[in-house]
Amino acid sequence: MSWLTNLIPSFFHPMGAILFALMIPVIIFYFLKLRRTRVEISSLALWQQVINDQRVNAPFQKFKRNILLLLQLLLLCLIALAAMQPYLRGNAEQLTYLPILVDVSASMGGVDEKGETRLDLAKKEIREIVDGLLPNQKLTLIAVGASARRLTEFTDNKQILRDALAKLEVQDVPSHVVDGLRLAQALSRTQEIESVRFYSDGNLPTKPNPATGKPMAEVDFDLPFRVDFFQIDPAGNNLGITALNARRATPETWDVFLRVEGTASGSTETDVILKANGETVGEEHLVLGPGEAQRLVFKVDAQVDEFLEATLKPNGHDAIKVDNQAWLNLPKGRDVDVYCPGELTTFRHALEALEGVDVFPLADGSVNAAEFDLLISDKSADAQKSAGVSVLIGVVPDDLKELITIEDQQAEVIDWQRDAQILQHVQLKEVVISELPVKNQGVEDLHIEELGYTILAHGNRGPLILSKRDGIRVQYFLLFHTDRSTLPYRVGFPVLVANIMTEAMQRASLTEIRAPSTGVLPGLVLDKKTAYRVTSPDGKHETRSSDDNGVLKGISATMAGEYEIRQSGELVSKIGVGLLNATETRLETVDTITFNELSVEAEGERLLTDKPLWEWFAAVAFFVLLFEWWYFQKKPAGIPD
Q: pTM (2 decimals)?
């Protein structure tokens, strides 16, 4: 009988029924309206007429013969019912404060055969919630893309909610639902939030479910409230570029690798075109089976700067368009510029043995480079030289001199980060060190890390090797001098130098380069403390300034396409960013989200929201009022024959 219960209206403000009491004075005034004058007559022949008049003024006769009174009573009843604010109950729980999280990741822009995106379908369901909002309920809309963004405060203003919903757009980024949940958790500290609704197609980062073997979404979050997950049906077939990178094959050429993947829902077919500086350098035709991926390799000239653009031209339905393009900037091939003073003979010998490396200063003491890809020095003053990677030997940073003291004792290597890039495959256990870095009284590792340093190797009384990152630059500090250790005589020393060189070449984009993906633009090394104008693919402009090191960073790039960086109107750089996300391209969905303590399954049945009826009663009352006015003006006396 629940369906019958849902057809019986409930009233949000039942005290409005007191307006029904106004019917009493209306009826009383109607009865008191007629006042007859006592008149003496000369004949009884008129008595019959008096009896007829009394019958006409009898209560039931008056109800029967005066439609104006009935219209007035009907109008009053409708107004009273509207004031009681009736509504039909749905099966959704009534909540005072309800945050609604909306997934706006790239997969939500997937278009089905009808031409509707996943976001459009989510908007329709949310709009029904807004339309059925009761006076004691307030909503807040939160968009979840690369980060969480609150669209409205908690409000019951339907127009504000509808406007915010209409402006909601898809971002060309993967979804980070945990950011939206953390924002809702922050709101729960000021409002009583019992439940959060999450609308998504279920395209989330996944891992295999140990119990079923099927993929499931795992979110590292402790739920302080209930989460209702409403899954939007996925779109149809899709394919896209999920990886684009280049590797230096020879001093004259790059090998460019491109990966194309398709959905598991069906076969896909496409043409692949690669252009360099606007000229086509490769073209392939691909046919992918369900869930299949293919990797293509192209050769590109390394003698000049190249701006690569890879494009897919699908044959047939393609749900997402933004993953059909990717861009990659390839610099002109050159040798690696390294600064290493002549006193560090062990490092210079190891560097000069490597191919494609120019070591400065030269034999005549000249330095033919203003900036270096790698700097290795035992002089603290050289730390001021501009270099992508710096390695300072036997130097304690100025901000650590009050925390660390170097004593003339033997140090022992206790442990080191074997996964750190410069220490990979480097064995330090048997290294003998004649200088001992010691932490001063009361100094803990946390105090060093708070200054931005990472401890890569620990000694028996203090750190031995530190690293510090500054934007796109990195500095390494060996707090002991290598000449006072057995490290240069160990097998791991040339490996250490090779690791340093590899990182320097990677940061200088001389070995392997990956195409940037949406989210944030990669940092650019430009002029120091200079204002630049960044133009996004949709024509919007943003002015940002480079830092003290000349690094321009932190520019949001939530839209796939080409971004232009200009200074005083002159084009300085052009960067293209693509989606390049296999999860978004494959449109894989999950119906279960696993949190730290429990799992939430997608709702199999859509909730029916409460349907307010007072607008209908008010509208009918208005039309009754118009009819009464029309009727009174047409026939002010009596009922038509």
A: 0.72
